[in-house]
Amino acid sequence: MRMRQVATCQFEPAVGDTDSNIASIEKFARDLPDAVEFTVFPELCVTGYDLDIVQTQQFSIPGSMTERLSEVAHATETDLVVGLPEADGDSVYNSLVYISKSGVEATYRKQKLWGDEADQFDAGTTPVTVETSIGTLGLLLCYDLNFPELLLEYANNGCDLLAVSAAWRQSFERDWRLLCRARALDGLCYVVGSNHVGTQSGRQHAGESCIASPRGDIVAKTTNGTAAVTTTISPETLAQARQKNPVWKHRK
pLDDT digits over 37-49, tens only? Predict the structure, then answer.
């Protein structure tokens, strides 16, 4: 693996305004350092987190929406991890896509649906990984983070990084960074967590996007004045963490 950076970005999407939201994604990506390999954005950030609009705003993958996002990836030379409602036949999924300048590299469908999400979405059933130049990346969405068994599937697949996109509410704020740290330590991997900020459809989101190291430490975090942060992914840090904490070997 090369020494490269990853980023997490948080913003308040405009509900139903995909043009505005894609413009926000592009601005973030353009402003990131050149060394950033990929950046993670919040859950359903293309449409905003509003379950009432899912029936009218859903997208085939691949399709015209992912083509637009691929154009952003090409223009900014940064791969994107982005959440959107996915239409597939009669089913709709809360999905997370990894998009490069070449198009969709991976699509993950949220497995654990929170509250009323189950009225709008079908549940995914499988973990999804994508090979990047800095290691194997696994994908999760929001409430999935509460289930260590989902993380362990990725650990058993040798994931070096985990991208978690969320619409985590402020009322559960204390859980968010704790779970990001815990999943990083469980999986001995980097966790790149992106959350919504602001209010959408009456939901106050917590922000607090962060990157956790394989030792479970927060190595980068957003603040009230900083909506995007990066960190360097170190192969040595991964190797040392796995040597000091040999849970991978003992699980097998």
Answer: 999 999 999 999 9
Burial of 14 (0-12, 13-18, 19+ CB in 10 A): middle
H or E element that contains 25: helix 18-31
Per residue in 214-252, pLDDT (tens digit) is 999 999 999 877 899 999 999 999 999 999 998 888 887
CB atoms within 10 A of CB 239: 12
pTM: 0.96
Strands (E), 89-186: 91-100, 103-109, 129-132, 135-141, 161-166
Phi, psi of 106, deg, nearest 5 = -165, 150
d(CA 124, CA 83): 14
State how far Cα 127 lies from the chain centre.
Answer: 13
